[in-house]
Amino acid sequence: MRILLVEDDAEVARFVKKGLQEAGHTVEHAANGRDGLFLAASEGFDVLVLDRMLPGGVDGVRLVETLRGQGNRSPVLFLSALTAVDERVKGLKAGGDDYLTKPFAFAELLARVEALGRRPSAEVPTTRLKVADLELDLLSRTVTRGGRKIDVQPREFRLLEHLMRHAGQVVTRTMLLEKVWDYHFDPQTNVIDVHVSRLRHKLDKGFDKPLIQTVRNAGYMIRAQ
Amino acid sequence: MRILLVEDDAEVARFVKKGLQEAGHTVEHAANGRDGLFLAASEGFDVLVLDRMLPGGVDGVRLVETLRGQGNRSPVLFLSALTAVDERVKGLKAGGDDYLTKPFAFAELLARVEALGRRPSAEVPTTRLKVADLELDLLSRTVTRGGRKIDVQPREFRLLEHLMRHAGQVVTRTMLLEKVWDYHFDPQTNVIDVHVSRLRHKLDKGFDKPLIQTVRNAGYMIRAQ
DNA sequence: GAACACCCATGCGGATCCTGCTGGTCGAGG
DNA sequence: CCTCGACCAGCAGGATCCGCATGGGTGTTC
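Output (structure tokens, whole complex):
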């Protein structure tokens, strides 16, 4: 996990950085708010660990507010000697996700950092493909166009999926044979043509704009007109 | 925001519920783990606030583990009188997202709950379900146990999916007929038995721990032993 | 321990579904 | 006009899938 630590106290910083690294994470360290902001804004981190009070104009709260203002949603854990409830509330309200007061047990810091990093921000797998008004839902194996459900066969589904994953690019017959049919040779028949035809028939029935274009001597391409 | 509060202490529950409601949130309350699990599994909440220790078999940690096993990723805040670092770490490691010790200031609870709810995690569709070493990938329509791929028929897949979505709960025959077969009547045959049997055969071949348990006169249940 | 209800496993047969091929037609490009 | 690539309707073999019936277990109740 990539973690950014912004902490001015060299002693604390060393201690935290070492521990996180030993737990298998990558840690970048900045000693003041300005550097921290720069790093956080330019690189992608899974979790930010920020000291609440920092030297220089940019303290922890400012830093988070700025990041959030830029649309950066990285989870933030505040680390602070300010224990008052009001301070904690302020940190959370500013956009922090957690708040740990010094002194703290490293085990808890680690657990909290990992809890923050556990969030599904990183790996959101694509679950639906979309080209113009045509949608393909990988989860339910469902195809809809303009909201109307369209029944397709498994092979047709694979074919369409492959086309849509390469929307706007020409897909050659050889690629299709490889990826959709698992043929590693030329079957010497027009299987592909037939399936493309069937697919077109289903997709375009009742619509005017055809979606699948043939590219002569090359293959097929799907594209939002 | 929709919040589920699972807390057995009536006094605390009333206090928290009232406060959250006054802050403009909708609060459901369950007084024990079993009810809490049921609610959390059947309805969608933005945040779960769980007492760490609960009467009855299902305590806070068990509850979270079960939910996470079902692929439910709702953020969880633990509320507990157990202040030891080890306890806090345990709660977070189990899948909790935050941990607040009693007594607490309501302002801080509110700030933390709102910080949790702020996350974009709410509507990430589940793409894989897991129970013990059995995994079901909705995207690829694939079932694996202990890393080994298992081929299942469509109907078997739906059956298994439904069981896994309700892991740890008994699933009645009527529910299965409704949800898996779309029958709204009793077909007077043993269709279900047959499919459960086939599924068991495939899932348990080569493993020792059986996964699907039958609950006499009630239905079936899948659970990590 | 007998009767009963419930549950399990297996084999079978029908139905559906799926897919690739053929063969004839069309149309673009030269 | 000729040729080649692309298109499409229909067909038929096969595979898959699914539900049912049957007969055998197992736990429960009286």
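Residues 128-222 of chain A form a domain with the Arc Repressor Mutant, subunit A fold (CATH 1.10.10.10).
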